[in-house]
Amino acid sequence: MRILFAFLIAFPVSGAIGMPAWAADDQPAQPTAPEAPAPPMTKQARLDKLFTDLKRERNEKAAERIAGNIWSEWFQSGSASIDLMMLWSQKAMDNQKFDVALDFLDQVVTLQPSYAEGWNRRATAHFMMKNYGKSMSDIDRTLQLEPRHFGALSGLAQIMALTGHKQSALEAWQKVLAIYPMMRSAQDQVATLSEELAGEGI
Questions:
Q1: Residue 144 domain-assigned?
Q2: Among 21-25, 105-109, 114-118, which stretch is predicted with the lowest mean pLDDT?
Q3: Residues in contact with 7: Cβ distance below 8 Å, sequence separation at least 6, in sequence order
């Protein structure tokens, strides 16, 4: 009886319900279901990761590559017709035909008002035409849609500097560096404006 009792209490210890421990090893392995592939990242998730990497990167060239990937994400409108108009607008701007570019960009922001890069591109066209008020309005809309848009913030900083608002320009460049610490032009502008403002304060 003592032997039978010892045999029975061994079952739960084996971890194999209904069979002794020595029998569990002889059972065929149960097939495991293949792991489901991870769902593709959304555009927002890709951007979030890129911005995290951009903020941490301390190698200038590597940071430039990350920034380039961010621009690639920004350019993707999700609409073939919008992408085409953006391409035409860029060609027009390259040829200094800013009025033509604006015609395309007006259509872009009308058809897809949630597309931040459309507003940023139109802000750039206005900037090139020295329509600083209109450019700032489009920059504001860009930043409402994408607060981390270092391109739009750079444009704002340039307008502030050109219109004599050095302190505001400095603050805009500092916001750029908070997002993209290795941007060389922003670093240079912060150093220059800080020095100028310090000299004017003496």
A1: yes
A2: 21-25
A3: 20
Give the pTM: 0.79
Task: Give the DSSP letter of residue 36.
Answer: P
In a domain, 13, yes or no: no
Rounded alpha-carbon distances, angstroms, from residue 22 to 16, 19, 29, 30, 126: 10, 8, 15, 17, 81
Structural domain of 119: 62-191
In a domain, 69, yes or no: yes
Domain harbouring 90, CATH code? 1.25.40.10
Give tens-digit pLDDT for 17-66.
333 333 334 445 555 666 777 778 899 999 999 999 999 999 999 999 99
Sign of the four-CA dihedral 72, 77, 78, 81 = negative
Looking at residue 9, the DSSP 8-state letter turns out to be: T
Q: With CA atoms as reference, report the closest residue to 154 among 175, 132, 138.
A: 175
Token pair in block for residue 168: 């505001």
* Spatial distance between the Cα atoms of 150 and 129, rounded to a whole number of angstroms: 21
User: Using CA atoms in the order 145, 147, 152, 153, what is the torsion angle rounded to 10 degrees?
Assistant: 160
DSSP state of 19: S
